[in-house]
Write a structure and sequence with these properties.
alpha+beta, Cytidine Deaminase, domain 2, six-stranded mixed beta sheet, 5 helices, 6 strands, 29% helix, 26% strand, globular
Length: 152
């Protein structure tokens, strides 16, 4: 698999990164960060690596897929998070159709990711699905908010 695209928001370990990086508190924040990628005709899978105050260290697209599928494993998620020295992550992917309803596979992969994070002591805070739309900010579906997955 490997990283096909990286978007670094700020350098890890600098005062700027700690003080001025955006704080990620709700699904709309994730959707706003991913608004350009949400317009993609193919699925992508992204990891938002966060510091101890849940401020963004980096946003990494770890997989690109097809029009209706993208494969990313917990191993890929936490490889990226550990390289970034993250204490928490939010995972996100898009549905090019615009329908943000999670599939059974979306739920299963999220559960595996949460379990792996507990072992590695890196919290998975949420799994967000963003949908394509004509508005400035894409729609966002939070598996945490709807209670489909028990998060740390």
């Amino acid at each position: 698999m490997g990283t096909s695209m990286k978007i670094t928001v700020c350098e890890s370990g600098t005062d700027f990164a700690k003080k001025d990086a955006p704080s990620i508190r709700e699904p709309a924040h994730v959707a706003a960060l991913l608004k350009d990628l949400a317009k993609s005709d193919t699925e992508f899978f992204a990891v938002l690596s966060l510091n101890q105050k849940y401020r963004l260290i980096a946003l990494d697209v770890i997989a690109m897929g097809t029009a209706n599928a993208c494969i990313a494993s917990p191993r890929d998620v936490y490889r990226t998070a550990l390289q970034r020295n993250a204490v928490a992550v939010i995972v996100a992917h898009n549905h090019p159709s615009g329908d943000t309803t999670p599939s059974a596979e979306d739920i299963a992969v999220t559960r595996q990711t949460v379990a792996a994070g507990k072992t590695l002591e890196v919290k998975c805070l949420d799994s967000i699905i963003v949908g394509r739309c004509d508005e400035e900010t894409p729609t966002a579906y939070s598996l945490r908010e709807v209670g489909l997955v028990e998060f740390a």
